[in-house]
Write a structure and sequence with these properties.
By secondary structure, this protein is mainly beta. The chain contains one helix and 37 strands.
């Protein structure tokens, strides 16, 4: 486990009862590379920067629950300084309003939080510190105004918890070659009004604020899944997985980070966690599919949480497609039950599994050999299960052989077929919930041969199994013939002749860990041995 852990210093130790507010001053400089209000402003040397908020509020008139997301991006393109994203969802009906527009900034302070923008076809929008009677910024209090044709926000924020400084010092390496500066304000009281489908009403609730700047670019970079969580025990979590272009999640803190606000004294950043995807959801046009439920586990604070999106289609279409929506959380922390709310931002999409049958080949099915197939589009976020079936009536009916397989091979012991049967095999591959799925059938039939010599197999002693460096095969009498080691995809890894010997020693030192098969063919008979390399 790699762990970055920090105990935030209490700035005012004279009065312990007041420590929760000791950071609510400007300037405020926690340890590391983040300072307030300086780093709330624009960083002119960074290629991309954004100011993000998401929240959950309740209407005082209708009693409706709403979730929202608003983001200013500074990313000059095509004559504009950037763009803003405004999303609001009626959480009772699932109705989702989104609006993305380019903009030019009329005010963009580099010393504090003061943003005003001329939004294309939407007017002036702003997000800045509130001011006191002397026109000075009020630390960690803000006002946001945005209004488009059918949706709008006119809200105020008051940050209630000490800012969460990701990576301890606010600087993270992300993905293969990028970096970001990052902090979160995990709990903010929200008051004001919301406009939804032309109806404006007063609301109250809670919000999350994120700040990122650097060269990690969500528009062009590696895809990710990001989560914010506010838990009922007062703990707040910010975590993400980044996927390589090959859909892998390397097990290091460049690709996976969990930052936790535990209390006003304690926060930490760690890559000691796992995310299991439990369910998937495809958009109405089937162009993109996202995960919709996750299980988060971590030994730090013994986290075991289920995260579930509230709605199936809160996908932003422009400037690129991604899913952004509210979530619910349930589970345990240190064995104690908790609930929570949050948001998920999903740029990584999932595909139906694509499978190719790799054995049998050549028109012959030899029951001594495993049936094998390959997954052509593996994805670390989408474990695949397999069902295997066969047909002996020209594909009119398929009969089950095995189901729920996790390895792309199966040795069919005592098959219920006869020598010479024409066989077709069918592989059905699917995600844990079956939403992502695909099937493939043998391109042509294979003639069955059941020529395994069981008497010969019983005369063979093979050891050790599992093996590390060598695999021994002993015969009761000297044999002459040939052997081959094949992998689960039917590929021959090594082979050799057997020349009048009763003891074969095979070096397995260079084999990768996994399952292999040793195919023996001698004058006395044929045998197939399953070999596990540790």
């Amino acid at each position: 486990m790699k762990l970055k852990f920090s105990l935030l210093l209490i700035l005012c130790s004279i009065c312990l009862s007041g420590f929760a507010q000791d950071w609510k001053v400007y300037p405020y400089s926690p340890s590391g590379q983040i300072a307030f209000p300086l780093d709330e402003g624009r960083h002119a040397t960074e290629p991309i920067e954004w100011w993000y908020t998401a929240g959950h509020v309740v209407g005082e008139t209708t009693g409706k629950s709403y979730s929202f997301m608003y983001t200013f991006f500074h990313y000059p393109q095509s004559g504009f300084d950037g763009f803003r994203i405004l999303n609001i969802t009626d959480d009772q009906t699932g109705t989702f309003l989104q609006d993305v527009k380019p903009l030019n900034y009329t005010t963009l302070s580099t010393t504090d939080f003061d943003i005003e923008a001329s939004v294309f076809l939407a007017g002036t929008e702003s997000w800045r510190n509130k001011k006191d009677i002397n026109n000075l910024p009020i630390p960690f209090e803000y006002e946001l105004f945005a209004l488009t044709s059918n949706a709008g926000l006119d809200i105020e924020f008051e940050t209630l918890k000490r800012p969460l400084i990701l990576g301890d010092d606010g600087y993270l390496n992300q993905g293969e070659s990028n970096y970001t500066y990052y902090y979160s304000q995990t709990m903010n009281a929200i008051t004001g009004s919301i406009t939804f489908n032309g109806l404006t009403e007063m609301v109250t609730g809670t919000g999350w604020i994120d700040r990122q700047y650097g060269n990690f670019n969500p528009l062009t970079g590696e895809k990710y899944e990001w989560f914010s969580m506010q838990l009922s025990n007062g703990m707040d979590l910010n975590l993400w997985n980044i996927f390589t272009p090959d859909r892998l999640i390397p097990n290091n803190d460049k690709y996976k980070i969990l930052s936790a606000y535990v209390d006003e004294n304690t926060q930490y950043t760690s890559d000691d966690f796992q995310i299991e995807r439990l369910a998937f959801n495809c958009m109405p046009d089937d162009e993109r599919c996202y995960s919709k439920q996750w299980r988060l586990t971590s030994s730090m604070n013994n986290l075991d949480l289920i995260i579930t999106t509230l709605h199936d289609n809160t996908e932003v279409q422009l400037p690129f497609r991604f899913f952004e929506g509210a979530t619910s959380v349930s589970g345990t922390v240190n064995g104690v039950a908790v609930t929570g709310i949050g948001f998920a931002e999903l740029l990584h999409s999932y595909e139906d599994p694509e499978v190719t049958i790799t054995a049998p080949v050549g028109g012959i099915y030899d029951s001594a050999l495993p049936i094998t197939w390959s997954l052509n589009n593996p994805d670390d976020g989408r474990p695949i299960f397999y069902d295997l079936e066969y047909s002996i009536d020209d594909q009119n009916n398929f009969n089950p052989i095995a189901s729920g397989l996790t390895s792309p091979m199966y040795l069919w012991e005592s098959p219920s077929i006869s020598d010479g049967d024409d066989l077709w095999f069918k592989i059905t591959a699917y995600s844990i919930d079956g939403v992502l799925n695909n099937s493939v059938v043998s391109s042509s039939s294979s003639s069955a041969t059941l020529s395994v010599n069981q008497v010969f197999s019983n005369k063979i002693k093979a050891y050790p199994n599992p093996t590390k460096n060598v695999f021994n095969v002993e015969f009761d009498t000297p044999q002459q013939g040939h052997y081959a080691i094949v992998d689960v995809n039917g590929r021959t890894i090594l082979s050799s002749d057997i020349i009048s010997t009763n003891h074969i020693v095979v070096s397995t030192k260079l084999l990768k860990s996994g399952v292999y098969f040793m195919i023996l063919e001698t004058e006395e008979g044929q045998a197939n041995l399953r070999v596990v390399k540790q």
